[in-house]
Amino acid sequence: MAKQNPDKKSPQVFSDAYALCLQVFHYSKSIPKPYRPTLGRRLEESGLEVLLLLKKSLYLQPGQQKVAALTTLSQHLNDLRTLLDLCRDLALLTPASYQQLSDLGLKIGAGVGALLKHHKNREPSNLMKATHNQTDRGLESGAAE
Q1: Domain contains 133
Q2: CA 37 – CA 143 distance, rounded (Å)
Q3: 82-117: per-residue pLDDT in tens?
Q4: Which of 103, 21, 27 is nearest to 54 (CA)?
Q5: Full domain range(s) for residue 116
Q6: How many domains does the chain have?
C-alpha cells in the first residue's frame, strides 16, 4: 500500500494522519465479519475523525479555538489508540499491523502535542502572564538596587 500525500505543502503530521487513515481502512477489511459492523466501523470513523480534525486545526488562526480543536483532536487520537489496543487484545489485527498503526499513532500524537504546546504558549492569557512576570522581575531588580 503506497503512502500518498494529498498535498506536498502539508505538514508531516498531516501526511502521517493521512497514511494512518489509509492503513486503518486497509486493515479493517481483514477484521472478522462479526466485528466489522462495530469495531471495524468505529476504527474507520475514528481514523477519519482524526484526519479531518487535524486538517481543520491546521487552518484555524492561533488562539483559543485552535487550542480547543487540537485538544479535541488529541482526545480522538486517544480513542483511536484504545480501539487499536482492543483489536490487538482480541487478535483482530496481526502484531505487525498493530505495530505499524500504533507507531503512526504515536508519531501523530507527538506532532499534535508539539502543536498544542506551541499554541498554548501563544495564547493571549499566557502572553499577558509572561509580560507581567517580566515586569515584576524588572521592578524587583530595580528595588534591589
Answers
A1: yes
A2: 70
A3: 999 999 999 999 999 999 999 999 999 999 999 889
A4: 21
A5: 12-144
A6: 1
Q: Return the residue matching grid coordinates 484526519.
A: 51
Q: Say yes or no to pLDDT of 127 above 50.
A: no
- Which residue blocks in the chain are alpha helix, DSSP H? 12-28, 41-59, 64-89, 95-121, 124-144
**pLDDT one-digit tens code per residue, 50-76:** 999 999 998 888 888 899 999 999 999
Contact indicator for 62, 119 with CB cutoff of 8 Å: yes
Q: Which cell goes with 86?
A: 482492543
CB hemisphere CA count around 134 (13 angstroms): 6
Residues 6+ apart with CB under 8 A from 13: 54, 107, 108, 111, 112, 115
